[in-house]
Design brief:
Blueprint: E1 2-11, E2 14-24, E3 29-33, H1 40-48, E4 55-60, E5 63-64, E6 75-78, H2 90-95, H3 103-112, H4 128-140, E7 146-150, H5 158-174, E8 178-183, H6 186-192, E9 195-200, E10 203-209, H7 210-215, H8 220-225
Parallel strand pairs: 3-8, 3-9, 6-7, 7-8
Antiparallel strand pairs: 1-2, 1-4, 4-5, 9-10
Bound molecules: adenosine-5'-triphosphate and magnesium ion (MG).
Magnesium ion binds near residues 41 and 80.
Amino acid sequence: MIELRNISKSLGKNKILRDISFSVKKADKLVILGPSGSGKTTVLRLIAGLEILDQGQIFFDKKNMNNVVPAKRGVSMVFQDLALWPHMSVWENLAFCLNKQNKTKITEMLSAVGLEDKAKAYPQQLSGGEKQRLALARSLIFNPKILLLDEPLSSIDPLLKDNLIKLILDLQKKMWITMIYVTHDQAEAAQIAQQVILLHQGKIEQKGSLIEIRNNPNNLFVKKFMGVK
Ligand SMILES: Nc1ncnc2c1ncn2[C@@H]1O[C@H](COP(=O)(O)OP(=O)(O)OP(=O)(O)O)[C@@H](O)[C@H]1O
Ligand SMILES: [Mg+2]
């Protein structure tokens, strides 16, 4: 289980997150929804340990993570810009994540994301969707307990998007992963998870299912963002 308790974070002079609290059960899923600049990426970076908290606590399975380095957290993150290694082939991008070469595992992962024919290609030779599948494969190859996805399908056409969402949900279930999925797209959120957190200017405006939020918006911002008339 992941639990954030009263998290606050400033970057420079800006207060980026204010008093954020939420939890996700083991092997469950949560969507963080919110407009650009609301602090979604910052929440993920704090969970991954890539930023240090100003206030509050993060727990994984009741263990306080505040002083645990990123590599020891069992967290994998797909970054908004994917951050693939451009000088490495598809195969090498995956192999580099493993301590020991494990051909079977790499082959299995490539086939899980449908990239078995692209093992020798370099990232710049891949389409947008293929790059996103590679980023996903790379994030899953070391069996993370927690998967953080930062708008992983933002540049994908609708048809492929549906396929990739199915793939993500399938792998998350099979591998028993706790997943937090960031998006600003309600339709995508609805496909991913029941539980949603709506962020705005670094604060949680509302928590619940999309239907609950739409039917009972807490305030005018929520109403507008959700497009409730
Ligand atoms: N290193 C930094 N220094 C100062 N401010 C920052 C820094 N990084 C992010 N910010 C600010 O923090 C706020 C939240 O940024 P964040 O990237 O978490 O938002 P986001 O919800 O992921 O946005 P987007 O949907 O555009 O990716 C923004 O106003 C941003 O300008
Ligand atoms: Mg972001």
